Amino acid sequence: MSAPRIKVMVVDDSAVVRQVVTGLLAADPAIEVIGAAADPLLAMARMQMQWPDVIVLDIEMPRMDGITFLKKIMAERPTPVVICSTLTERGAQTSMAALAAGAVAIITKPKLGLKQFLIDAADDLVAAVKGAARANVKKLVVTDKLTADVMLQPADDRPAMIQTTERVVALGTSTGGTQALEVVLRALPRVCPGIVIVQHMPEKFTAEFANRLNSLCQIEVREAQNNDRVVPGRALIAPGGKHMLLRRNGAQYFVEVKDGPLVNRHRPSVDVLFRSVAKCAGANALGVIMTGMGDDGAAGLLEMRQAGAHTLAQDEESCVVYGMPKEALKRGGVEAHVPLSGIAREVMRQMHALQ
User: Fold this and answer.
1) Deepest in the core among 7, 67, 186, 286, taking most CB within 10 A?
2) In this predicted model, what pLDDT tens digit does every residue of 95-104 receive, in sequence order?
3) Residue of 58, 200, 310, 318 marked active site
């Protein structure tokens, strides 16, 4: 019985590269190209239906760069990756970053004569894919997956103080979340509950992201700083590389921004935020889990629901990646699924119901 063919996903924003690489790899009887995508978000959506054995990945792409995508894959579902890019000359900083992030092989594309080079380098590309398929990338990454326990203990049986007019909405999202959050926040009126958000995003990117949303929305949107108040009409986005927790002083809410280990291989972690909301706000909160890969936030959303909060999940049809909402549903944390276009309306309806 012959060995199963190596399933490969090609991710490159160049249509020429996708066509040529797909043809070269498919010509080898040991390889099956299961898809080709112009950017990581499209690739992620397709990979949820059939996961590849090897990913051939460019670095310069729209919507998400290859290094960020590589780190996400290695953190959440380690898969052999062959980098094929013009940015990876031998010894270049980008090459070092790709190898450090877990790439198992690198092929440098020239800036000129690309199509002919790829044809000439067909044997090297096929050999790299076959070698990558044999790599045990799980040994290349940290395997410990810490829970929110490393940041704070679960809520006890005593409910959070019930008598308060302050409401809190906690949103958690990852892949596809930048676009999804824009849809939700732009649809909210100026008078809306205070919002706390974890969007998986690298350090130094969240401030720019928050500033852009602030320029588009009726509400105030900003990157959270330690001790910022959670007030109506304001959304606070956890800074990349830091955890964000909800805290309470009397009837007022504020956020704590702090260092800590990766939780569910993320920092900031949705589970950390959601658990803190369950402890501090209880039934005064609404939890919303949106598009994203992995299971960060699934346990925390269940804790929120158990603490009396209402909980929502973005529906599968409108998700770029239906990973985090699906896991939250499986664990029992989701009260209702809502399409992306209806989340803002449901946030306002749920919050008015608490008045």
Assistant:
1) 286
2) 667 776 778 8
3) 200
